[in-house]
Amino acid sequence: MRFGFVILMTGLLLAGAAPAAEIAQAERRSGYSFMTPDTKAMQDDDTANPGMLWVLDGEALWKRKQGAANKACADCHNDASASMKGVAAHYPAFDKALDRPVDLEQRINLCRISHQQATPLPYESRDLLALTAFVAQQSRGAAIETGSDPQLEPFIAKGRALFTQRQGQLNLGCANCHDDNWDKRLAGSAITQAHPTGYPLYRLEWQSLGSLQRRLRACITGIRAQAYDYGAPELVELELYLMSRARGMPVETPAVRP
Amino acid sequence: MASALINVPKTAKRGDIIEIKTLMSHIMETGYRHTATGEVVPRDIITSFTCRFNGTEIFRADLFPAIAANPFITFFTRATDSGKFEFEWIGDQGFSETASASIIVE
Fold first, then answer.
1. 3-state secondary structure chain B
2. Domains (ranges, CATH) in chain B?
3. Which of A38, A39, A52, A53 to substitute to test the interface with B, most B CBs within 10 Å?
4. Per DSSP, which regions of A132-249 are E strands?
5. Cα A145 to Cα B74: distance, rounded to the nearest angstrom
6. Quick one: closest CA in A to B72, which residue?
7. pLDDT for A19
């Protein structure tokens, strides 16, 4: 009897440790679909969605002259509704000069440094979030196309390795929750499939807009691992993998999440 | 860089019940939190919201520290005349913002 029990337990443990199966295309769901009707209504109504406050600020910043060059974003890119349409759906994108992918926040700061000759905006500062939200909102509804550039392949592979890598005191990888257990709940909250379709997004818990890097760092802290610094290549590779994994899903920026 | 989002129907029929939605950008710092070194983070909240229609006050709310950041206030009123809604938010540390929206009542 006892021997039988041990065999049964071993079987269960092995089943539990089965390698992460990727989510089938048809089964992919945005975090939106896991939300309550109230939170969905908040995202859907532009006058109730607090993320729109950042978008408004971003629109003002877009037209404001900055730096030693005394140029506004609009001086080169003109009307964002035309020039930035669909742009965020391609990020993180490959930067030739740096020879590696950069996310939308980094692209805005690179533009500030080289073209506006201004100081880069700190990560999670109101201005950087506002500009990013404004640019990304121009792609709302567009299908995510990140990762179509073949130069990104090695970086997507690194991001994927990080996604499946167990780490931290809880010895968990991202995939253990977001590939294997997305249909379950953790402490009452839906686990979700980790498709970053609406960043930067307004998280009710934060009472603020926040970037995907902030979300990733919070998740890494949650598994009791040491979070990478803002702007670290590992975080950008994770962003890249997650966005390429969400390819084809519509951009929701600025999304609302619980 | 405070900004407000106002949603008032542009037109309404006389006697209609209309919904007015307002969203104001504000951190709503409670005054109950401490920094890592133990100092109290000073309270910084919106304390009062008022809506006037053609100069007459039609809605007022007092706000308290338990209200979340970026307060979203909605209320209903009856459309009587064409005119202008004026909104005013007043708060700690000299915070004062206004916004307005017009309606045509047929």
1. CCCEEEECCCEECCCCEEEEEEEECCCCECCCCECCCCCECCCECEEEEEEEECCEEEEEEECCCCCCCCCEEEEEEECCCCEEEEEEEEECCCCEEEEEEEEEEC
2. 4-105 (2.60.40.10)
3. A53
4. 185-186, 189-190, 201-203, 208-210
5. 38
6. A48
7. 54
Query: What is the reported pLDDT for A178?
Result: 96
pTM for the model stands at: 0.90
Q: Which two tokens stand for residue A208?
A: 């603020």
* pLDDT at residue B3, as a whole number: 83
Give me the mean pLDDT over the B46-68 stretch.
96
Residue A3 within a domain: no
As for how many domains chain A has, the answer is 1
CB-closest option in B3, B6, B7 to A53: B3
Whether A2 has a pLDDT exceeding 70, the answer reads: no
Query: Nearest-CA residue of chain B relative to A207?
Result: B69
In a domain, A11, yes or no: no
Q: What is the pLDDT of residues A67-119, one digit of tens each?
A: 999 999 999 999 999 999 999 999 999 999 999 999 999 999 999 999 999 99
- CATH number, domain of A210, equals 1.10.760.10
Name residue, tokens 């109504």: A45
**For residue A229, how many other CB atoms are within 10 A of its CB?**
11
Chain A interface mutation, best of B20, B67, B72, highest count of A Cβ atoms under 10 Å: B72
A21 lies in a domain?
no
Q: Which residues pair with B62 in a beta bridge?
A: B48
Gap from A127 CA to chain B (nearest CA, Å)? 10
